[in-house]
Structure formats: C-alpha cells, structure tokens
Amino acid sequence: MIRTRINDLLNVRYPVLQGGMAWVSTASLVSAVSEAGGLGIIGAGGMTPEELRENIRQVKTNTSYPFGVNLMLLSPDINEHIEVVKKENVPVVTTGAGNPGSLIKEFEALHILTIPVVSSVMLAKRLERLGARAVIAEGLESGGHIGEVTTMCLMPQMVDALDIPVIAAGGIADGRGIVASLALGAEGVQLGTRFVCSEECNVHVHYKESILKATDRSTVTTGVSTGHPVRCLRNRLTRKFQELEGQGVCREEIEKMGAGCLKLAVCDGDVQEGSVMAGQISGLIHDIKPVQAIISSMMDDVVRVIDKLGRLVEV
Ligand code: TUI
User: Fold this and answer.
1) 68: CA distance to ligand 1 center in Å?
2) Rounded distance between C-alpha atoms, residue 158 and residue 188, angstroms
3) In the chain, fewer beta carbons within 10 Å around the N or the C end?
4) Reported pTM
5) First vs last Cα of the chain: how many Å apart?
C-alpha cells in the first residue's frame, strides 16, 4: 500500500488520478476509477454545460467515492462550466491548458479543492502562492495539449520548488512508471492513455485499437507553430498538419483544421482523419481491461518493484 499526502487530501485509497480527458472521460470511466480506489475525473472540455451537469449527477449515482472535474480553460463554455461545478458540489477540480489564477480562491471558499495541471515550475510556484492544494506536473510524454519538458526533468524540479504535493503525469502506464515517479518525489500519479484502453471507457473501439497497435515512435507533436502543441498518434491528419506547418500556413488556418478532429476520432472512430490524442507510453499498452483490474494489478506491481529495488541495495 502506498500512502502519501494525496491519499488524505483527496480521501482516496490509491494516489492514482485518471486524466480528465475531453470527449473521453465521461461518467462511466470516472465512476469506475473512483470505485476502484483512484480519483476519476470528468473531462468538461467538449461538453455542453448541461452534459457536464448530467455527467456529474451520473457519477454521484454510480459511486459515493470522491471524483473530480477537469476544466479545460480554453473551452468556449468555460464560464458556464465553472458555474456548474460550483452548483453541483464537486469535491475536486483540476484545470488544464491555462492559468486558473483567481479561480482557486473562489473554489476554496466553496470547499472545492483545486489542482492545476502545469508544465512549468514558474506557473506552479505562482499557483502555490494563490492557494493551489497540489499540482499535477505534466511532462511532454502526455497525449493532447502539452508543455516542453519531460516528466523525468520536470518532476524533481517541481518537487524542489514547491511545498505542496506534486502529482506526476505523462509517460506513466504501469507499476514501474509509478515507482519511478515516486522516486522523483511525486506523491501521486495521473494516467490518461492507460485508462482509455479500459472496458469502461466509452471511446470508439478504433481509437482503443490504434493505441494497442502503437509502438514507442507512433506519436507526433502537431501545432508547435501555433503555440499549442498537441501530441497524437501519427495518421493522415497529422501528416496534413505537418505539411501545412512546414509551408508556414497561419495559426488560424491550422487551428480551424484541428477543431472537431478529436470528436471525429473518439465518437466516430475515424482514426485517419481524426485527432487520436495519446501519450508516448501508448506502445506499452497491449490490452483492454476493466478499470479495477488495471488499478489493482498496477498497485501490486508497485509493491513488487519497490521490493526488487530494495534488494539491489548491498549492506
Ligand atoms: O490540457 C491538457 N491537455 C489537453 S486539453 C485538450 S483539448 C484540445 N482540443 C483540441 C486542441 C487542443 C486541445 C487535449 N489535451 N493538459 C494539461 C496541460 N495544461 N498541459 C499543459 C498545460 C498548461 C499549459 C499552459 C497549463 C498552463 C499553461 O499556462 C499558460 C499560461 O497562461 O501561463
């Protein structure tokens, strides 16, 4: 059993969070993760305010364990999403793709824990000063919208710079990854891609199969020229993106092309023209399993790996 400040902060059995992925993290996945002892997180990005409210209510019906909502700060509906979260008694909010700033105090007053996802030490320190209760440090191995530093380099620098607990994200999909994160000073981990390949995740089966087929070099980063880098599995869409970016096509044009592509892959299963956001760890994922099996076998592995490491020490 692994116990850190995150267990008590979030009131969870395992310090394991499920990434609040837009279009992917809906009630069925979220409640399964919370039931299995982790923290399931609804991805508000892509949802209408009504859909978000429905998903929150569904999770509360399915489980009495804590859960969270991820607010994608670039969402056009962000203000309405904030109102829904405030009204529906959501215990934990994570934020992504921007600076949550003054939201932290507003949520804190309502006893909502705010845990920003960050990809730089500078922003993390600012958010700690503003009252963030923990941060999720996301390395560039992650799928979707990413920063510029790897988890390996980001984690120890975050841990040294902050007093609040740091949760590692990006490149973690098994017990070894969790132990490595703990070694770097993490008090929790967040996994996205691993949970996409679960039975309870409602993405199109073609999306899951693309991840199962992936190897270590299957992902690429698009949108670097627009200032919004996004990691996806290589396909016809990413080749088209790279061609346009190489020709210096303007940011607006490229972003217009990207809009709606994630939904196309997740909902319609078009894994050639759609955006199949997934992390660099995709190549490690070989099966689709129930969430409970993913979490329990991973936590068993954590104990085995730590035990093995202990035996490396000569006395
Ligand atoms: O948010 C994510 N990952 C995402 S959001 C997303 S939805 C999307 N759909 C289409 C195109 C683009 C995105 C898919 N994946 N991860 C959390 C994260 N946040 N990673 C990095 C950051 C971040 C970046 C800049 C956090 C703060 C930040 O601050 C900038 C500032 O304002 O200081």
Assistant:
1) 17
2) 13
3) C
4) 0.97
5) 25
State in Å: Cα 190 to ligand 1 middle. Answer: 15
Lookup: tokens for 164: 């609040």
Is the pLDDT assigned to residue 251 strictly greater than 80? no
Say how many Å lie between the CA of residue 303 and the centre of ligand 1: 32
For residue 257, what pLDDT is reported?
67
Q: What distances in angstroms separate CA 66 from CA 12, 59, 60, 63, 147, one per listed residue?
A: 7, 9, 9, 8, 28
Query: How far is 83 from 195, CA to CA, in rounded Å?
Result: 28
**pLDDT of 209 over the 80 cut:** yes
Q: Whose CA is nearest to atom 28 of ligand 1?
A: 98
Q: List the residue whose alpha carbon is closest to atom 15 of ligand 1.
A: 144
Q: Is 307 exposed, middle or buried (0-12, 13-18, 19+ CB in 10 A)?
A: exposed
Query: 119 C-alpha vs ligand 1 centroid, how far in Å?
Result: 9
Compute how many other C-beta atoms are within 10 angstroms of the C-beta atom of residue 67.
28
| CATH architecture of the region 5-202 | Alpha-Beta Barrel (3.20)
Q: Provide the pLDDT confidence category of residue 215 given band limits of 50, 70 and 90.
A: very high
Quote the CA–CA distance of 119 and 98 in Å, as a whole number.
10
Ligand 1 pocket (Cβ < 6 Å) reads: 22, 45, 72, 96-99, 117-119, 123, 138, 144-147, 228, 230, 258, 262, 277
